[in-house]
Amino acid sequence: MGIISRGFQGRRRGDDERLPPGQYLTEDFPVLSAGPTPRVPLDRWEFTIDTEGGQVHRWNWQELRALPSETPTVDIHCVTTWSKLDTRWQGVSLDVLFEDVETAAEYALVHSYGGYTTNLPLEDLLDGKAWIAYRYDGEELEPRHGGPARLLVPHLYFWKSAKWVRGIRLLNEDWPGFWETAGYHDYGDPWREQRYEGD
Ligand SMILES: Nc1nc2c(c(=O)[nH]1)N[C@H]1C(S)=C(S)[C@@H](COP(=O)(O)O)O[C@H]1N2
Ligand SMILES: [Mo]
């Protein structure tokens, strides 16, 4: 019975069409961290957006949590080939955070507590495509999965979803982040299998 219900959950009708090329489905939630889990006390936590013109927009933890939130249910795809369907999050849309940000920049460099960075075009953060997520599956986001808050950009490989997110720097030029400098693809579209530089 265990085997039947597990197989049933893992292979709903239509799942195959939701799986990008070269990916397999998992029910687990693997942890992938390039270093130790940083611990950020909430009274010292902040999130910033720095524009190319030098303006800094800043939110502390209470301010972030007071913003209107959304509860996206999304599929996530890690470049190490696992995908997880229908993951349930709560967080603030980047559209809300960018409401008062004046910028003509085309690129964003996301940085995390602990030093991780990742880059993406600014447009990939806007129009309902990205969130600062602080709850997962009905619970506060666990530290190992990026708590107190992480970026969630499900339409790109999951390395773009920076855990322990600290801020976004807006840039006129594209600056590669941690994995992008190490040979991973600059953009990382799982549907075009953009795993490595040159794919
Ligand atoms: N700060 C930070 N964010 C990160 C990473 C990391 O090492 N440090 N790893 C990335 C990678 S490669 C993946 S697949 C996902 C993994 O998230 P998870 O550990 O919650 O599954 O986080 C991404 N965000
Ligand atoms: Mo990853």
TrEMBL record:
<feature type="region of interest" description="Disordered">
    <location>
        <begin position="1"/>
        <end position="21"/>
    </location>
</feature>
<dbReference type="InterPro" id="IPR036374">
    <property type="entry name" value="OxRdtase_Mopterin-bd_sf"/>
</dbReference>
<feature type="domain" description="Oxidoreductase molybdopterin-binding">
    <location>
        <begin position="35"/>
        <end position="179"/>
    </location>
</feature>
<dbReference type="InterPro" id="IPR000572">
    <property type="entry name" value="OxRdtase_Mopterin-bd_dom"/>
</dbReference>
<protein>
    <submittedName>
        <fullName>Oxidoreductase molybdopterin binding domain-containing protein</fullName>
    </submittedName>
</protein>
<dbReference type="Pfam" id="PF00174">
    <property type="entry name" value="Oxidored_molyb"/>
</dbReference>
